[in-house]
Structure formats: structure tokens, C-alpha cells
Design goal:
Nucleotidyltransferase, domain 5; 2 domains; five-stranded antiparallel β-sheet; 17 strands; 28% strand; rod-shaped; disordered C terminus
């Protein structure tokens, strides 16, 4: 999963509880994609001398005040009361990890086999495994104390496991060469807790008892030597452990799977408070779906109406085109009738000219009259001068014989064709 997507999944509230010799430090954190915000912090003083029910009521009131009564705390076990070991199990598959860790576990602590509680987790995708070990009676003491106080506990881990996961919960993994430290007060006096990471040691956690930060040069030398870091590496303060535990309580999937608490004693954070939110989200999703479906339905109906309207208009358009073609045809017919009406006088005038030209005893045997020309055959006393006479008419021109003139019984037989002129526009030919 990409870092951006992981950031947008950062939602939740959590409670972290750090155990100190004389007090309990409580932190309430709200996590959002923009980061983690400490809502409130609280210190329960002298918790070992006071009745558990008394300070437990204070703890419950504090959680209720800040709306996290449903949250089970992630508890930071004092580093001096836990053993942390980092083991290199190169080539060991996840399914064989339990057997491999169990095989080496007896050599990682000085206690009896039945006197310890232990858990482990692989550090990311590396071959390194972080193992946490604590005395069972120590865990039993704290679990009994929290049960009497009514404190719901989801996880008990040493600081090293929480710091490793906390450095990666909201951000990208830190660069190699990390060195952190802080001064602690323990039952045996002051101590300095050191945590570091490097390419040779993915997690390094140690407590220097009876030591203060005044011995910084010696502590830094020891730590940088163990981590194979540059001696000039400047240590940074350890993060607030209660705050870090609260972040992992809000984002339990980002925590290392290291939990010294027995499964039967673990309390899961109640998610009933999320039910109204989940219902509202479901209603919102249904309304959004209905809105989108309604839009699609309305768009579909609109499309159907548009298609119907288009079909209706196309039908009217087709009818209009048909009427236009009928109008054009009627106009052509009207024009043709007008032309035909004008032809009769023109044809009669042409016949009148022929009658004047061919006087008796000349006569016509045939007459072909078209819009372009006229062809006649017949007999005349003198057919040779017929062409000149025809061309002299204003309605005829370009006269010519279609056959040689023949003399028979005192008359010339002829067949003549002439072009017509001075006619009105109209269809090409009409045969009479």
C-alpha cells in the first residue's frame, strides 16, 4: 500500500499508558490523515500506595471526559522490567518462525522456563525478529492491579517494540543511523534508556542503570559502537512513550505483533461508538446511490423523450420534403401546361406561313412539326425557289432539301426541312 493511501486510512482515537515507579502517565491521542494530536494527558500519582478502585475511577472519568471510554489502553512496560533481543533468522519462513524463536528462547533470558512470558515479531520484511521477554510474576502483578482498577488493557509491550512501530506508524521509515535516549527514574535509581537503529542493528534497546545523561560521552560511545555508527552521531530525545502507545492504540494494525499479555486477558477496544457513524455512512451511501440512479433514470427518460421528439420532427421533415417535391412537380406541370397553351398559336402561325408560301397548284403530302424544325413533302410548280421563300419567313430558317427534286406530271416533287425560330421557351419537342 502506498504511503498516501495509508495516510488517508489513519482514523481513530487511542489511549497510551506508561508505567513509572511512582506514577502512571496516560495520554489520549486522536489520529487523522493530517497527523496525530494529543487530546489530553493525565498522571496518576502514587498508584501503588492508593486503592486501585480510587485511581481507577479517576482514570475512567478522564477517559469519559474525552470521549474514549471505549478504548483499551496500550501499556508501556518499564524497560528495566523487560528483556529485548533482536535475532537474525535469515532464510526462516514465517511459518517456521515460531519454532526458530522457541529454539533460541531459553538462551535469551536468565529465568526458568515456566517463569517467563515472551512474544516476538518480525521487523518489517527483514530477517530480523524482535523478541520481548518479561517475568510472569511481574506481568501478573500489573494485570491484577489494572483489573482491580477497571483499566481495560489491550497490549503490554516494552518500549523498544512501541518505538520501532511508532516511528513508522504515521511516516516513512526513518533513515539508518538513528540514536535516541532519555533519562528515566527506576526503583533502583536513575537510568538512561537508549534506542537506536542502523544497517547492522535494525533495533537496539538498552538501559544503563545508575547512570545519568551527564555521562553522555561514554553512553554515546557505547551506543555508536554497538550500532556501528559514526562516533559524531548526535543522539535525539526519545519520543513520549505514552503518546507513542496511544498512536498504536488508535492504529493497532500499525503496531508490532508483540504483546506479553495473555490472549484471555486482552481487551479489544469497543467499536460500538462507531455504529452511529457506520449507520450514517451507510445511509449516505444509499442516498448517494439513489441520487446517482435517479440522475441516470432522468437522463434515460430525457433521452427517450428526445429520441421521440427527433423521430416526430423527422417524420414532419419527411412529409415536408414530400410536399416540396410535389410542389415542384406541380410547378413543372403548370409550366408545361402554360407552354403547351402557347404552342398552339405559334404552330398555327407556322402553318399559316406555309399556306401562304405553297399556293395552288402546289400542295403538301406530309408535315412534321416539332419545336425545333419542320419537315414537309409535296409538289410545287417550281421547287427550286422554295428554299429561298421558306428562309424569307420570320418563323423559318436554314431550309434544305432532304432529297433531290424530281419532276412528275408538270410539278416538282420535293422534301424540305427547315429550322423554326422565334418560339417561346418550353419542352424540347412536340410532334404534330
Amino acid at each position: 500500500m502506498s504511503g498516501d493511501l495509508k495516510r488517508w486510512l489513519n482514523f481513530g482515537s487511542g489511549v497510551g499508558l506508561e508505567i513509572e515507579p511512582t506514577r502512571l502517565r496516560v495520554s489520549v491521542v486522536r489520529v487523522r490523515p493530517a497527523g496525530a494530536t494529543q487530546v489530553a494527558s493525565y498522571q496518576i500519582e502514587s498508584y501503588l500506595e492508593r486503592p486501585a478502585a480510587e485511581w481507577g475511577a479517576e482514570y475512567a472519568a478522564f477517559l469519559k471526559q474525552h470521549g474514549v471510554s471505549h478504548s483499551a489502553a496500550y501499556v508501556v512496560l518499564p524497560r528495566s522490567e523487560a528483556i529485548v533481543r533482536v535475532i537474525n533468522l535469515q532464510g526462516v519462513l514465517d511459518r517456521d518462525l515460531a519454532a526458530a524463536v522457541g529454539y533460541q528462547l531459553d538462551g535469551l533470558h536468565p529465568y526458568g522456563e515456566d517463569d517467563v512470558a515472551a512474544d516476538y515479531a518480525r521487523l518489517g520484511d527483514s530477517p530480523w525478529v524482535l523478541a520481548a521477554i518479561a517475568k510472569r510474576e511481574t506481568l501478573s502483578f500489573y494485570t491484577t492491579l489494572f483489573a482491580e482498577a477497571g483499566v481495560a488493557v489491550a497490549n503490554v509491550s516494552p518500549s523498544a517494540a512501541l518505538i520501532w512501530a511508532g516511528l513508522r506508524a504515521l511516516n516513512e521509515p526513518p533513515p539508518s543511523g538513528l540514536l535516541l535516549w532519555a533519562e528515566r527514574e527506576t526503583a533502583d535509581g536513575p537510568a538512561v534508556e537508549v534506542y537506536g537503529e542502523s544497517e547492522s542493528r535494525p533495533a537496539y534497546s538498552v538501559v544503563f542503570d545508575q547512570t545519568r545523561l551527564e555521562d553522555a560521552a561514554r553512553l554515546r560511545s557505547l551506543a555508536t559502537s554497538e550500532l556501528r555508527l559514526d562516533a559524531a552521531t548526535e543522539p535525539q530525545p526519545l519520543p513520549d512513550l505514552a503518546f507513542t502507545a496511544a498512536i498504536l492504540s488508535a492504529l493497532p494494525r500499525r503496531a508490532l505483533a508483540v504483546n506479553l499479555l495473555n490472549e484471555a486477558e486482552r481487551t479489544s477496544s469497543s467499536r460500538l461508538w462507531l455504529v452511529p457513524t457506520a449507520i450514517l455512512l451507510a445511509v449516505l451511501a444509499l442516498l448517494t446511490t439513489a441520487y446517482l440512479m435517479q440522475q441516470n433514470y432522468q437522463n434515460q427518460k430525457l433521452l427517450e423523450r428526445l429520441n421521440q421528439e427527433i423521430a416526430r420532427v423527422e417524420r414532419y421533415q419527411a412529409e415536408s420534403a414530400k410536399l416540396d417535391s410535389e410542389v415542384v412537380a406541380l410547378r413543372e406541370r403548370t409550366k408545361l401546361l402554360d407552354t403547351m397553351r402557347l404552342r398552339t398559336p405559334e404552330d398555327l402561325d407556322t402553318l399559316l406561313d406555309l399556306t401562304r408560301i405553297l399556293t395552288p397548284p402546289g400542295w403538301l403530302m406530309s408535315l412534321d412539326l416539332t419545336r425545333q424544325h419542320i419537315a414537309v413533302s409535296g409538289e410545287a410548280p417550281q421547287a427550286d425557289s422554295l428554299l429561298q421563300t421558306l428562309d424569307a419567313s420570320p418563323r423559318l430558317k436554314e431550309s434544305q432539301h432532304l432529297m433531290p427534286v424530281a419532276r412528275s406530271q408538270g410539278l416538282d416533287q420535293f422534301r424540305v426541312r427547315a429550322m423554326r425560330e422565334g418560339l417561346s421557351a418550353g419542352p424540347a419537342e412536340v410532334k404534330k
